[in-house]
Structure formats: structure tokens, C-alpha cells
Design brief:
Number of helices of chain A: 26
Helix content of chain A: 40-55%
Structural class of chain B: alpha/beta
Strand content of chain B: 15-25%
Oligomer: heterodimer
Helix content of chain B: 25-40%
Number of helices of chain B: 16
Structural class of chain A: alpha/beta
Distance between the termini of chain A: 66 Å
Shape of chain A: globular
Number of strands of chain B: 13
Shape of chain B: globular
Strand content of chain A: 5-15%
Order of helices and strands of chain B: EHHEHEHHEHEHHEHEHHEHEHEHEHEEH
Number of strands of chain A: 18
Largest sheet of chain A: 6 strands, parallel
Strand order of the largest sheet of chain B: 8-7-6-9-10-11-12-13
Strand order of the largest sheet of chain A: 9-8-10-11-12-13
Largest sheet of chain B: 8 strands, mixed
Radius of gyration of chain A: 28 Å
């Protein structure tokens, strides 16, 4: 009997359909070649999938590394099939009461593996996950155990897209099922465009029921700007850099006093690499939502290895750049809107008069906007330009409002609501449309959330977020005037599109959606920490179920509301509240003893 | 105050708990001596940090040393903090049971840290020490309040910390100087000649537990150079854990000088350190654990007290130790020449901003008098003992 027949015989009982599909597959995805030590190895597209010298030894090293974090009771999920050496090695290191699943994006690859090596009894103990990404995600999330992902990169890269899709599906499912209350510290910038986004993030996390420590660095903006007055650039940079270091230390001090489950920094947050490394050493989880164009602001290169998780608004090239710079985990997280702020308004006649126009643009005077906006002025429509940094843009002075003063969010929203056609032109350094047009700016979501009609320049990542019935986009400079003309004349059409766009935002693109997605991503990779809290495993009810019902600990835990997250310090606080003179049980004393060391574990400063 | 309850069994067991640092452990010696003297029938064990256990075993009167592994507790706390489970409590319970299978009749707590109080409640049936009503209480006993005031830098009232520990345990100070015997340990071969040829041998403590108590390396270098110049047969032994500071001190010294310096920093266990200090004629340094170790070994000690160190409360315990006390937190001048002069028995002088003190011992314990005057026991000590522990008098 061939290896294939023997191997599939073992699988057939539990997985008849997978067995059938594998048997029917033509295989041949991998090129099987002998390794130096004699056992079969494999390549794909000229790259080794297993070691060309000793695939077993390599697999054992990989499995040893993976199994360090794998805990009892978790379902280990392997990405990457190859010839399954690594899976065999992992089975040998499986913790007690843990199970192992292997994702099979291609039955052809499984057939290659099953035809090449005789898999023994271990193969029958594996959960085989196959089908569409949606089907695989459903299979995995139906499992009661926490998921622990383990990627065997040389084989996983053959199906990177399928794995990404599966992860995205998992995130969506987990985001919808989130429960449990996290403590999240949000650290924003001293000033700049990511400051309002940091505030929206705080609001969203609070709305989701999490406890948020908002470490507002904008309080120090005036001091920071004082240093900008130094004439010598070296003095200025030195002082600003030292000041940022001091703020970094201030953040650490706050974290030491009230340790969070997760530290979420927004772009430009004053955390330097040394502080991030220190935080990692002290077992803090850190994430950065880099809401900037990575091609323009490049300080991420110094910080890439410092954060545990990066969330970015661009995809492939950005992912690769960050990973090359040392980032461990990079995920796509587009911008969003806050519908409590960005909303349709009923304006008074005076407001409509002040803020309204046929066509408006709100934003700063970047080079391409200075070059293009004059080309879109016309005697056929009124035009208002709002925002700052337009000095020297002579051809736009006649339409510039408030002398080019910076305008606040509420004014922006009034302008959006009062304008028939809002122009949304992503900035770039040249004099035309952005030649590397990938990410979608916050303005797109904000205008949509306001129910305002917009014309936006074409972006590579836009189709995933809005379809053409929700946003009108332009691919060239010359088509804008005719689009303006068309849509100014079509009031019902504008209304239909803008209402559809608002519905899409409310359904998928609020900051609450983004925060759920962010936490689901982290929870997926941290099943025993963030994941456990979000599953509700740290709530009083779940904790009580895990302890001996007659124990002192059970009686202590029962004093908390069943859905309240309970930690060591909460139980200790209840015991301390008994006050002096009470006889304490031995378990109570032990809890107080552990708690006395708890603060030292986060002794940061 | 009695050691045990009236219904005491024949063989009573008591535990002294001292979870602080080396200096505090050594300053617990008078209290341990007195507990042993007052209650010779009792067995007396000690609970101290694991890394100090070898010093604990040198303390006379202690039968068994229980090692408290703070790092392991930190690890357990981290795990329990991430995910509170019954097995975490079972694990610590098992660890404590292994440490002390039977609860002690009484624990004497010499720290005010919650973990010392909790350890006493877990390991013993009765706890005596800083709190009046158990580990959740915030009512201090009179002696605990005194020690807290000393620790918080309020004006001390000239009862030495080691004697206050006696008060905390309900015993009087011994009234004489208690010493420990040098341990019989092997030194690394290259350190074996220490103390054998030439004289005097001076142990110089290069570091301190807190950076604010660091004597600048340039000052130590100046002191060493002056000493070696004035004592052609003298030798200096650098002790402590701060190898880099020791290297910094030695780097600019001449090869001739280096031949008379023995750098032991970072190379010795605490027992070996004690053996080295016992072989030296004098020990010099700021207020540090090794300084108190030298004093406990009965060797003459010269201390430079500055920052928050205060001679009357934490000066080296015993008689005829000399301490230069800075008046402010930081000092611009240092008693380099004055220390050398004292060693040559050329009088006790102090540079500007410093005063110089010598230790004495009487029935109320150790006290310090101005080194240039005859010993005058401070009268407030007796009053304090009567106020805080009248039953003892």
C-alpha cells in the first residue's frame, strides 16, 4: 500500500470529505527532493519549504520555540503544511489538555505531504481545518478552547493571502463576540493630526465598556512649542528631544502607578525605543496605531521593534517595510469616523449662508492642493476654501475663508453639511494627484458620516471600504469640473449617495468598529491575556467555576457580581476592607501576600 | 513581656522575621541575643531573604534559617495577577508548608513591610512586632512608631535601631557588644594572602545599596593614595559588589600602588566577605551592609555618614567605632585626611560640614558621643525606654 493510501486511511474516518478531496487532487504543488541526511525535503518556486540538510532537526527547533508559549487547554493552530515535519514535532511537545489544528488552504499540498511520508498515529489526533476562509474561521471559532496561532513561515508563505483572509474572518467573528473589560492606556501625541484620532479612540474604547486611562500629552504642547523659538536648530532639536524623553518617563510613571492590560499609542506619541523596550521587559503589551503615511513620516523605522503590535492604514509595501525594520506583528486598520461628532446637522439659515457653498474644500495648503484647486474654480459655482497654511496661494485668496485661520472640528462639520459638493483631495508633495494613492484619509469617513456628498481622488484601498454607489471618485484632474457640474445638478442623486455612504460608516467604519478589530487582532495573538479577558474568562463567574466550590477563594469570588472582571488586587482589596482585628483565613493571607508582590512586578520607574 | 503564652508547652518554637537588607539583619543581632538569653528553653529560628541566609546562619542563638525567596514570590504574583487560579494559592501554600511544616508558637517581626506581617500571620500562631491588631491594622506599637519616625527622617531620639529592635521584641538591649564568629570558609586562592603580610589591612567598601550613598570614586582614589603613601606596609582590600566602581577607582593609580590593592568586588559570597573583613584591621565605608558586617565581626569600623544616614540611629553597633557625620545631604568635602589621622591616633578631627563621633555601649545599648569628648550617655534614651517599654525597665 502506498504512503498516500495508508495516510488517507487514517484520516478517512473523521474527515471523509477532506480525504476524498485530497485523493482527487492532482497534487504537485511541492517539489520533493532528498535532503542531505536522506529524508525527503521540499521546495516551492525554487525556495526551500523544509531544510535541505535535516528537515526533522529544523522542525524540532521550530516546535521547541513555538511550544514555549503554548499553554494547557489551548488549541494550537498551525499555518503552513509543507511535508508536516513541523506538525509532527509539535505533536510531541503538545501540553497536557491542549489540542492541535492544521489549516489546509490547499489539498494539493496535503496530497504531496501524504504521498511523500508515512504519517503515523499522530496524524489522527490533529484537527484538520479546510474549506473557504469563512468556513475555516467558523470551524475554529466553534472550538471552546482559546486559539494559539503558530506559523511555519517557509510553508505558510505559499498561501499568505488565504491565511490573511482567514485571520480577517476570525477577527470579525471575535470582534462581534467580545466581552470582558480591559484596562487600556491610550497615549496620544503632543499635537498634530493624530491628536483628534487619539481622542476618538478613547471615546470608542469607553463606549465599548473598557476602562481607559487617557494620557493626554497635548497638555504639554505650549511648553514643547516654547523650544521652537530657539534660533539654533541643534538647540531646538535637543531641547524638544529631551522634553519628549521626559514626557516618555512621565508616561512610564503613570503606567507604573496604574498598570493597564494594553498600552495603545497613536502616531507621534512621545514614547522612545528605550522606554518601549523597558515596557516589554516588564511584560506590558504595547500597540501603535500609525495613522500616518509611512512614506512621509519615517520615524517608525526607529520604533518598529519597540511595539508588540503595529496597526497601519496602508497595506503590502508598508507591512514589508515595517517588518524589515523589526516589527513583530503588523495589521491593516483603516481610518474611521466618530458618528457622535461627525453627523448630519440641521443648520440655521445664517449658518447655511456662512458655511455653505456649491463647492468647498477643507484642509491645509499642501503643494498638490495649491496646484490643483485653482483649476477647479469656476464662475459656474461658488467655492469656499477653509483651513490654514495657504500663505502665498494668490489664486485662491478670493475663496479662502477667515483669512486662512485653522478651523475647529465643529466648524468643519458645519461646512461639510452646508456644502453641496465637498472636494476631498489627499495631500502629496507633487503638483498633481498622489502617485502612490493607497490609504484613505480620515476626511473620507468624516464626510460620509456627516451624510455629506464628496468627490474623492481614487485610492487603491478605497474599494474595500466604500463602493461606487457610496462614494464618487475621480482618477484624473481634468474630470473634476465635469463631475462637479454633474452632481451639482443632481440633488436626489447626491442625497442617495451620501446617505448610502453614511449607512456604510455606521455599519462598518466607526472608531468603535476599529477598536473592536484592533482588540480582536491582539486577542487572537494573546489568547491567554487580552484574549482571555475579552472572552470573559477573568469574570467572577468564570473564575468561580474553576475553583473548588467549598474553598475560601470561591467564597471570596462569589462576593463579586458575576460579570465583573476580578483580579488579584480586587480580591485583596475585599479582604483588606474587612479591617483590623478580623481573623483571616490562610487563603486570604496568601492572597494578600501575593498582592504585596504584585506592585513590584510592575516596578518601572 | 513574656516570650510565650502562659500555657506554653515544654518545647516552644519562635521565629524571628527580618526580611529587609543586610544591615538590618545584622542589627537584629542584639534582639536575637536577648530573646535567646531571656528564654533559653525555646528554639529560635530566623526567616530572612534567601540571599542573606548564609549571614543568618552566622548569628548566634539561631537554630535554623528559613529562606524567603522574594524573586519566586514575584514570579508567582505575576502569574496570579495575569490569571487568578486556585492552583496558584495551592502552590504558595505548598511552598510555605515546606518552609515551615508546623506553625511556630510565636513570630517576632522586625519589619513594618506588609509581607513580613503576613508571613508572621501565616507561619506563626501569635505575632509580636510593629502592629497591635493583626496584619490589617494600622495601629503601630510604640517602638514601631519610633522606628517609623527614624526611617522617615524625623528627629531621632538617640536610641539605636538595633536597640529599638529589642524594644520591638519586648526585651532590653544586651548591655554588651555581641559579635559573630568569622566563618570558616575558603577564599579564592588569589585572595588567600589577605591579612597575612604587612599592616594595616584596610577593607574599603566601594559602593552602597543606594547611589546617594556612593562616595565619589575620585575621593576613594585620593584616600587610597594617601593611605598607601603614609603606610608603606599598608594594604587596601576593595570590597562590595560594584566591580565597575572598583575599576574606576584603580584605573589611574600607579602600578606600584596597584600591587598593594586587592580587588575582591563581585567575587565573594557573603561568608567570604565576612572572612575577608575579619582579616582586616579596619573597615571604612558609608552606611552599608558590609560596614555593619565588619562591626558585627568585632572589627573597628570607620563610617562616613551622609545623605540620609544618621549616626545615632544606624551607626555601626558596638564600641569604639568612629563615624564622620555630614551635616547636609550632600558633601563637597570629605574626611580623607581626618580618617587617616584617626588611624594614626593623631586625634579625631572633622572637615568643615562634618562632625566626628565615637560609639560606646551601656545597659541601654549603643550610643555615639562626640569623639573629642569623654563618653556621655544621652539621658533621653532611658526616658525613652521608660516611655515606650516601661515593663522592660
Amino acid at each position: 500500500m502506498s504512503y498516500l493510501a495508508k495516510n488517507l486511511e487514517g484520516l478517512h474516518k473523521r474527515y471523509p470529505e477532506l480525504t476524498h478531496a485530497t485523493r482527487e487532487s492532482s497534487g504537485g504543488l511541492l517539489t520533493v527532493v532528498p535532503s542531505r541526511e536522506g529524508s525527503p525535503s521540499a521546495t516551492h518556486g525554487g525556495r526551500w519549504v523544509h531544510s535541505g540538510y535535516d528537515p526533522r532537526k529544523e522542525a524540532q527547533a521550530w516546535a521547541e520555540d513555538q511550544s514555549r508559549e503554548w499553554k494547557a487547554g489551548e488549541l494550537g493552530v498551525v499555518f503552513g503544511v509543507g511535508l508536516l515535519y513541523h506538525v509532527e514535532a509539535l505533536v510531541a511537545r503538545k501540553p497536557q489538555e491542549a489540542t492541535l489544528a492544521v489549516v489546509v488552504p490547499s489539498v494539493a499540498e496535503l496530497k504531496d505531504a501524504a504521498s511523500t511520508r508515512l504519517m503515523e498515529a499522530w496524524v489522527t489526533g490533529i484537527e484538520w481545518i479546510w474549506g473557504t476562509p469563512q468556513a475555516m474561521a467558523r470551524q475554529l471559532t466553534a472550538e471552546p478552547s482559546p486559539l494559539r496561532f503558530m506559523t511555519y513561515e517557509p510553508a505558510a508563505r505559499l498561501h499568505a493571502d488565504a491565511h490573511r483572509e482567514l485571520e480577517a474572518e476570525l477577527r470579525h467573528i471575535l470582534a462581534a463576540k467580545q466581552g470582558g473589560r480591559l484596562h487600556i492606556a491610550v497615549i496620544g501625541p503632543i499635537y498634530g493630526g493624530s491628536l483628534p484620532i487619539a481622542r476618538h479612540t478613547v471615546t470608542a474604547l469607553e463606549s465599548l465598556g473598557h476602562r481607559v486611562s487617557w494620557l493626554d500629552q497635548s497638555l504639554y504642547q505650549a511648553s514643547y512649542e516654547t523650544f521652537a523659538s530657539y534660533r539654533n536648530p541643534r538647540h531646538r532639536l535637543t531641547m524638544q528631544s529631551r522634553f519628549a524623553d521626559l514626557l516618555s518617563l512621565g508616561v512610564v510613571t503613570h503606567l507604573a502607578e496604574d498598570p493597564p492590560d494594553l498600552i495603545l499609542a497613536l502616531a507621534q506619541a512621545p514614547l522612545n525605543l528605550a522606554v518601549l523596550q523597558h515596557l516589554r521587559k516588564k511584560k506590558f503589551l504595547t500597540a501603535m496605531w500609525f495613522v500616518e503615511n509611512y512614506r512621509h513620516l519615517t520615524y517608525w523605522q526607529q520604533l518598529a521593534g519597540g511595539y508588540d503590535y503595529w496597526f497601519v492604514i496602508q497595506k503590502t509595501s508598508c507591512f514589508e517595510a515595517l517588518k524589515r525594520a523589526g516589527a513583530r506583528q503588523v495589521s491593516y486598520l483603516p481610518m474611521a469616523a466618530d458618528p457622535t461628532l461627525h453627523r448630519p446637522l440641521r443648520l440655521t439659515a445664517a449658518e447655511q449662508d456662512e458655511y455653505g457653498a456649491d463647492v468647498s474644500f477643507v484642509g491645509s495648503g499642501y503643494a498638490n492642493r495649491r496646484a490643483l484647486l485653482p483649476r477647479w474654480l469656476s464662475k459656474d459655482w461658488s467655492f469656499k476654501l477653509w483651513g490654514n497654511e495657504w500663505e502665498g496661494a494668490d489664486t485662491l485668496m478670493s475663496v479662502l475663508q477667515r483669512g486662512g485661520a485653522r478651523i475647529d472640528t465643529e466648524t468643519c462639520i458645519k461646512v461639510f453639511n452646508a456644502t453641496s459638493v465637498n472636494l476631498n483631495l489627499h495631500s502629496c508633495a507633487g503638483d498633481g494627484l498622489d502617485p502612490e494613492a493607497d490609504f484613505v484619509n480620515p476626511r473620507t469617513f468624516e464626510l460620509a458620516a456627516c451624510g455629506a456628498f464628496q468627490l474623492v481622488d481614487k485610492r487603491a484601498l478605497l474599494p474595500d471600504l466604500f463602493d461606487t454607489r457610496e462614494l464618487v471618485r475621480f482618477a484624473s484632474v481634468v474630470e473634476v469640473p465635469s463631475l462637479i457640474r454633474t452632481w451639482l445638478d443632481d440633488v436626489p442623486g447626491r442625497r442617495a449617495i451620501s446617505e448610502a455612504a453614511r449607512r456604510r460608516v455606521l455599519a462598518q467604519h466607526t472608531y468603535e468598529h476599529r477598536m473592536k478589530e484592533l482588540l480582536a487582532t491582539i486577542g487572537l495573538h494573546q489568547p491567554d491575556r487580552i484574549g482571555a479577558i475579552m472572552r470573559g474568562d477573568r469574570n467572577a463567574e468564570a473564575l468561580v467555576q474553576r475553583v473548588d466550590a467549598s474553598s475560601e477563594l470561591a467564597s471570596l469570588l462569589r462576593r463579586f457580581p458575576s460579570d465583573q472582571r476580578v483580579e488579584l488586587q480586587d480580591v485583596a482589596a475585599r479582604i483588606k476592607a474587612k479591617g483590623a482585628g478580623h481573623e483571616l483565613a490562610r487563603e486570604e493571607l496568601l492572597i494578600l501576600m501575593l498582592d504585596s508582590y504584585r506592585t513590584e512586578t510592575r516596578d518601572l520607574v | 513581656m513574656g516570650l510565650f503564652r502562659p500555657e506554653a508547652r515544654e518545647e516552644m518554637r519562635a521565629l524571628v522575621i527580618q526580611l529587609a537588607r543586610l544591615g538590618d539583619l545584622l542589627q537584629s543581632l542584639p534582639a536575637i541575643t536577648q530573646l535567646r538569653a531571656c528564654h533559653p528553653e525555646a528554639s529560635l529560628d530566623l526567616l530572612c531573604p534567601s540571599h542573606l541566609a548564609e549571614v543568618g546562619r552566622l548569628l548566634p542563638g539561631i537554630e535554623k534559617v528559613l529562606e524567603w525567596d522574594g524573586a519566586a514570590w514575584q514570579r508567582r504574583a505575576r502569574v496570579a495577577q495575569d490569571d487568578l487560579r486556585e492552583e496558584h494559592l495551592l502552590e504558595v501554600d505548598t511552598t510555605l508548608t515546606a518552609l515551615a511544616p508546623d506553625r511556630y508558637d510565636c513570630a517576632y517581626i522586625l519589619n513594618q513591610h506588609p509581607r513580613a506581617l503576613l508571613a508572621a500571620s501565616i507561619l506563626a500562631q501569635e505575632a509580636k512586632g510593629p502592629l497591635l491588631h493583626g496584619p490589617l491594622s494600622d495601629v503601630l506599637t510604640p517602638w514601631a512608631a519610633y522606628i517609623r519616625d527614624v526611617a522617615q527622617g524625623r528627629m531621632g531620639r538617640r536610641v539605636h535601631l538595633a536597640d529599638a529592635f529589642c524594644g520591638l521584641c519586648g526585651v532590653c538591649p544586651p548591655g554588651y557588644v555581641v559579635t559573630i564568629a568569622p566563618p570558616a570558609v575558603r577564599l579564592p586562592e588569589d585572595l588567600e594572602p589577605i591579612g597575612n603580610h604587612g599592616a594595616p589591612w584596610i577593607a574599603l567598601i566601594v559602593g552602597a545599596g543606594e547611589t546617594e550613598r556612593f562616595v565619589p570614586t575620585a575621593i576613594w582614589r585620593r584616600w587610597i593614595a594617601s593611605f598607601l603613601e603614609r603606610w608603606p606596609q599598608g594594604r587596601v582590600v576593595l570590597v562590595g559588589t560594584e566591580c565597575e566602581r572598583a575599576a574606576e577607582i584603580q584605573a589611574p593609580l600607579s602600578p606600584m600602588a596597584l600591587g598593594r590593592i586587592w580587588d575582591t568586588t563581585g567575587r565573594t559570597s557573603l561568608s567570604q566577605l565576612a572572612a575577608i573583613l575579619a582579616r582586616c584591621h579596619h573597615t571604612i565605608g558609608s552606611d552599608t551592609g558590609p560596614l555593619h558586617l565588619a562591626a558585627a565581626l568585632g572589627k573597628p569600623v570607620m563610617g562616613w555618614y551622609f545623605a540620609r544616614a544618621r549616626v545615632h540611629e544606624t551607626g555601626p553597633y558596638g564600641s569604639h567605632h568612629i563615624v564622620w557625620q555630614a551635616q547636609g545631604m550632600k558633601s563637597e568635602t570629605w574626611p580623607v585626611d581626618e580618617t587617616l589621622a584617626a588611624m594614626r591616633e593623631q586625634g579625631h578631627h572633622a572637615p568643615i560640614g562634618w562632625s566626628v563621633w565615637m560609639s560606646h555601649c551601656d545597659r541601654w545599648g549603643t550610643y555615639y558621643s562626640s569623639a573629642n569628648q569623654s563618653a556621655i550617655p544621652p539621658r533621653e534614651r532611658e526616658a525613652l525606654w521608660q516611655e515606650l517599654g516601661p515593663a522592660l525597665t
